[in-house]
Amino acid sequence: AVLDTQVVLDWLWFGDARAAPLGAAVMSGGLRWVWTAAMQAELAHVLPRLRPSAGGISCERALTLCAEMADQALAARPAVLRCTDPSDQKCIDLALALPGAWLFSRDRAVLKLARRAGPLGCRIVEPGRWQGLRGLARESAGAHTRRVDAGCPGMSEGGPQAALVWHGMGRGVSPPRPPLPPPWRHPPRPAARRPA
Questions:
Q1: What is the value of pTM for the model shown?
Q2: 140 pLDDT tier (thresholds 50, 70, 90)
Q3: Contacts 24+ apart (CB under 8 A), 10-13
Q4: CA nearest to 54, candidates 10, 5, 116, 108
Q5: Residue 86: φ, ψ to 5°
Q6: Strands (E), the chain
Q7: What integer pLDDT is reported at residue 131 of this predicted model?
Q8: Residue 54 · residue 68 · CB < 8 Å
């Protein structure tokens, strides 16, 4: 799943009850969260400008938690769907590059792309709808596994790591992250031979 910055803030910083079930799914390992360095940088830029968090955590702690809970992916290639809000385009690109992905957002510019994203294998929904969609998400996860086995051409080199299980805020230890199977990666280029 891809979470835009506002959804992450609603969940971790503002303690919005509408985002709580979605956050709990990420923390329990029931939902796999994927982000890019650009999304991480945007969150790091926004956090210091906000009022103190509802849960009393610091900016540094929030960023650390996100880095531990989210799987890192390289930036995806530009998608066919274009968002009228350029700051959200990176979320669209990533979600469309991940087979069977969910994109959670409250941004109207993103939500209005939901109908067009569906046939492309991406579901765009508001975070408050997560509880009612969990069964559908489990079905999507099975399809996602099958499609990953067939390869994922939408990503640039590299990709997100295998799903991790988070055992609670500030508690437990995340398991090691093994690399994903080869379909997530472009084959290495052969080294150029120098003339004798």
A1: 0.70
A2: low
A3: 10/106, 10/127, 11/127, 12/53, 12/55, 12/57, 12/62, 12/65, 12/66, 13/47, 13/50, 13/53, 13/54, 13/55, 13/57, 13/62
A4: 10
A5: -60, -30
A6: 2-3, 34-36, 71-73, 102-104, 123-125
A7: 80
A8: no
